[in-house]
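debug: dumping io for the single-chain case to check the tokenizer round-trip. Nothing else runs in this session.
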Amino acid sequence: MTATHAPAESFFLPVQDGVRYCLYHAPAGACRGALVYLHPFAEEMNKTRRMAALQARALAALGVGVLQIDLHGCGDSSGEFGDARWDGWKRDVDAARAWLQQRLGCSTGLWGLRLGALLALDYAAGARELPQRLLLWQPVTNGAAVMNQFLRLRIAADMVQEGAANGGTKALRAALEQGRSVEIAGYDLAPELVAAIDPLDASVLAPRGCRIDWFEVLPAAGRPLPPASSRIAAIWQAQRIDFGVHLVQGEAFWTTPEIAECPALLDATCQLYREAAHAG
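debug: decoded output
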């Protein structure tokens, strides 16, 4: 994973409603694949930037071109987070795939982390051109569950600052249903974005015709896939989806107070692509 490689190329990709900040990691030697990276939600994006960069560089060294894109209202892209919409993020995926495919001349896959993995699944389920493969890191499998988890950050902050939860998630949900944005951990959450994410369920989104590799990080070796994830895997198996689940041990780097790494996840992902190269 420490092989010499060219530095990433940063640029702003013009889209319909502004520009999106991108980092392109060119494949070393012959191109063996291409991936667009879709980051997680809100502050998890910042927590995981290092892991994404490490993996993108490692994949590029193996001959896989990677394009990292900051979605609308996120990172260094144009727009405010409160103006972001799910369909707009899917249009960003379209633009990123088109750019990468033109650059490398090959079909592109998607690599998503957390909510970015759910975005990859939802995009692929309705894509005109199916992604070559889906690489899912610690995928969020239920939209409503992750939105409730995010809303609880506001409740925790209210408890610390005011000593009361001010109605809990029910009150925040009511405000959203009335068309009002709510501020959570410095992010303005729009009701339109929540309404689009809430009904998403990974069990019905897996596309046929493309390979899916699902990586789950567990705190201790030998632990099984969590029950919610096991349910999704069983449904996909019954649907004859072409997928594999890979369990690795490590920290939940997307939520740790300090920036953390998960070397086992990096190694396992690289090994997957080494094996694919040998098989090809």
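debug: round-trip ok. Strands lie at 9-15, 18-25, 33-38, 64-69, 109-113, 133-137, 182-184, 187-189, 211-218, 243-249.
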